[in-house]
Design the sequence.
């Protein structure tokens, strides 16, 4: 059960932290994708977000239901709270909390205890950008190249290879008609799992305050798969800064 907790903790990092004509340039594709998501101006007005939803994790013991809450603060602060019912595995409730203040990360796991984030997990969060990884990516030292086109759910999609200034690379698929992100994939090497590729598909886009975001996320890897359904979103909310840092010792 502890190994399952470790895999799920890594999955939360991927999730916090996670898009046909080859004649088009990367800049053209990125600009069209930003426009499809609401435009630079609308995205630029978003400074924070509170997202709540349900999660169902697939396991040999059956589906494990739970809830997930995510707080984002520009430029890359993050707090994720996950609660999973492990009754079908002979356990109680698993609580995972992840906090990132823009530089340092901290995890609290009701099964494995508390730990500082290191390695690939930490680099993923440091290279992330809210509300869109496309805004100001060149200034952050990120490089994006067009790697061709592929089919995603029987539709053409552009494949972008993304290399941040530090940390693991990723691939992003953008629908060639809607220009909305439809899939992302990242591989990270951790002591718990070794090299692990995790892929997330995005669907069910909703318009909120002029910005489109996916309300369904299906994530798969060799060790875990789960589905997140967003139930509520609030933007430009006031967030207590203490929620992004390591809690004070009691």
Sequence:
């Amino acid at each position: 059960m502890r190994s399952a907790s470790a895999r799920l903790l890594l999955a939360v990092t991927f999730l916090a932290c996670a898009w046909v004509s080859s004649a088009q340039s990367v800049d053209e594709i990125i600009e069209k994708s930003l426009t499809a998501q609401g435009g630079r101006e609308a995205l630029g007005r978003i400074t924070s977000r509170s997202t709540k939803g349900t999660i169902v994790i697939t396991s040999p013991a059956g589906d494990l239901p739970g809830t997930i809450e995510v707080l984002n603060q520009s430029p890359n602060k993050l707090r994720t709270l996950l609660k999973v019912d492990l009754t079908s595995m002979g356990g109680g409730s698993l609580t995972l909390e992840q906090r990132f203040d823009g530089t340092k990360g901290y995890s609290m796991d009701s099964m494995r205890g508390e730990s500082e984030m290191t390695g690939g997990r930490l680099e993923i969060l440091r290279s992330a950008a809210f509300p869109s990884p496309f805004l100001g990516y060149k200034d952050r030292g990120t490089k994006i190249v067009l790697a061709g086109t592929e089919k995603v759910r029987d539709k053409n999609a552009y494949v972008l290879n993304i290399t941040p200034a530090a940390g693991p690379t990723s691939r992003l698929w953008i629908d060639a008609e809607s220009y909305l992100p439809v899939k992302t994939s990242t591989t990270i090497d951790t002591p718990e799992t070794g090299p692990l590729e995790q892929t997330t598909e995005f669907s069910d886009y909703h318009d909120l305050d002029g910005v489109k975001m996916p309300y369904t996320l299906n994530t798969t890897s060799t060790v875990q798969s789960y589905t997140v359904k967003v139930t509520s979103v609030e933007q430009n909310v006031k967030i207590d800064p203490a929620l992004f840092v390591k809690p004070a010792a009691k």
Q: What stands out?
A: The chain has four helices and 13 strands. The first strand starts at residue 48 and ends at 58. Helices lie at 2-16, 26-36, 40-44, 119-127. Residues 18-23 have pLDDT under 50 and may be disordered.
